[in-house]
Amino acid sequence: MGKWFPRFYDIAMKPLENTRFKKIRARLIGKATGRVLEIGSGSGVNFSYYLNVDQVDAIEPNPLMSDLSHKSIRNSKVSIRLHQVNAEKLPFADNTFDSVVATLVFCTIPNPKQALKEIQRVCKPGAGIFIFEHVKMNQELLAKLQDALTPLWEKVCDGCHLNRDTLRLLKESGIDLGKIDYYYKGLFLAVEATNNK
C-alpha cells in the first residue's frame, strides 16, 4: 500500500464530495441512532454528519488514513472512538450497536462476506445498516470495462475492486434490504437495511 494514496484520495474525491455525495452521506448518516459502528472511516469524511447519536466507534485498518482523521474527530459534535482493526474481526461483543454506517469501503475489504457476518454479529436485532458504495454495473459493456480495469485499479487504489458486486453480497448475507437508491446510472447505490438476525 503506497503512502501517497490516503492523501490523494481526499483530493480526488473533493469534487464529488461537494456535490451529490455530500447530500447522500448527510441523508444516510442522519438516520443513524444510538451507538454507531462505522466501517472503514478513512480520513473521517463522515464524522461531521453525525448529529443525533450517542457515540461512534470508527474502524480503519490503514494507519495513514487514521492519522488523517484526527482533525475530523476533534471537530465532530459527537464522541468518536477510532479503532485500527479490520472489518473481518471486530473487537466488540455481540449485540453492541444500534446502527452501522459504511461508505465507499466494501470495495476494499479483502473478505466482504466475513465482514458482513461480523456486522450482523455486533449489531442488535433490528439495527439500521446504512451503506453507500460503488458497485459492479448491470450494463454489460461497462461491467466488462470494470473487470478489465480492476487489477490495475486495485494496485493503485489501496485494494479497491471496481467490479465488486456488493449488492449481491448484501442479498446473500441475509440482511433485510429496505430502500435502495441508485446514482450515476447504477455505478453507486445507497442502501437502508436492517439487521434481521
From TrEMBL:
Gene3D superfamilies: Vaccinia Virus protein VP39
Ranges for domain Methyltransferase type: 37-129
Stated name of the protein: SAM-dependent methyltransferase
GO molecular function, one term: S-adenosylmethionine-dependent methyltransferase activity
GO biological process: methylation
Keyword Transferase: yes
Highest taxon, organism lineage: Bacteria
Keywords: Methyltransferase, Transferase
